[in-house]
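Budget justification aside, the reviewers requested a transparent look at the raw inputs and outputs of the sequence design task funded under Objective 1. We therefore reproduce one unedited record. The lines immediately below are the structure tokens for a 279-residue chain.
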């Protein structure tokens, strides 16, 4: 842990609070995974980013299992994103609440793809200090719930909308309005995102990152709730985090807990799921 957080040169000072601070937990999780003996995601840019920031990541209380879980989730969303890009060489990708994620750099989309990373202005400002520019890439400094920014997106391309660790912090009304607005703007496309169950939202006090950052979970749902978001929406695939490929790479104690939870229908088993939908 110390090796990831020690550096003597001047670094950008991070002053994010509440839900914005949670992006640092996912960044740190990817960095810890990358430094492990058998990385799941292998996000080396995350390691470099953690070293360059003036922030005490230890206060987030992220354990080895938490970091592996972050990496597993990110890898599955990468898989769906790469699959979409392989089918659509002139696609648009809209990454909602991008935080300090390096997905556009990990996947390195082709020159005809247009990629949009959307997050609060202070988060985008931090990204601009840390990550290089690239062709076809646009950062959009705004709240994802502000309707005005959607007009910046192309309306003539198949569009993938990605949201990782975001939608559970919005109200159901905001989630519905946001996704319907984006689907109405694009001619066709897919959604790739994670969501918590209503039980997980009620049990937020058990989530270390939520407690440490003082964040609030608001939206919990299930596959039936996802289908109700829009009549255009079709669930192609949905996976419990306990069934993600690579779950066997979790530390032993976490694997044992996951096996127990996986045997419990509803409740623990469905607390967090990943969805790939078509519209």
């Amino acid at each position: 842990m110390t090796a990831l957080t020690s550096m003597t040169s001047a670094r950008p000072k991070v002053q994010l609070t509440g839900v914005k601070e949670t992006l640092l937990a996912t960044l740190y999780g990817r960095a810890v995974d990358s430094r492990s003996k058998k990385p799941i995601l292998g996000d080396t840019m995350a390691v470099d980013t953690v070293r360059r920031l003036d922030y005490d990541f230890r206060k987030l209380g992220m354990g080895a299992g938490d970091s592996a879980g972050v990496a597993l989730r990110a890898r599955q969303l990468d898989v769906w994103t790469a699959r979409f890009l392989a089918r659509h060489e002139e696609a648009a990708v809209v990454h909602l609440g991008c935080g300090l994620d390096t997905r556009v750099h990990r996947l390195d989309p082709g020159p005809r793809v247009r990629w949009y990373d959307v997050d609060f202005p202070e988060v985008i400002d931090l990204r601009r200090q840390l990550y290089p520019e690239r062709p076809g890439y646009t950062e959009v400094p705004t709240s994802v719930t502000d309707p005005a920014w959607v007009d910046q997106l192309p309306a003539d391309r198949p569009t993938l909308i990605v949201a990782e660790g975001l939608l559970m912090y919005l109200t159901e009304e905001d989630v519905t309005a946001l996704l319907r607005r984006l689907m109405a703007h694009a001619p066709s496309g897919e959604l790739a995102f994670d969501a918590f169950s209503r039980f997980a939202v009620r049990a937020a006090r058990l989530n270390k990152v939520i407690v440490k950052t003082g964040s609030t979970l608001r939206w919990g749902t299930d596959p039936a709730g996802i289908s109700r978001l829009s009549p255009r929406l079709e669930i192609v695939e949905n996976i419990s985090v306990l069934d993600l490929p690579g779950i066997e790479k979790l530390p032993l104690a976490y694997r044992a807990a996951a096996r127990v939870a996986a045997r419990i229908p509803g409740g623990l088993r469905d607390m967090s799921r990943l969805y790939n939908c078509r519209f």
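Residues 48 and 151 are 34 Å apart (CA to CA). The first helix runs from residue 2 to 5. Computational costs for records of this kind are itemized in the attached budget.
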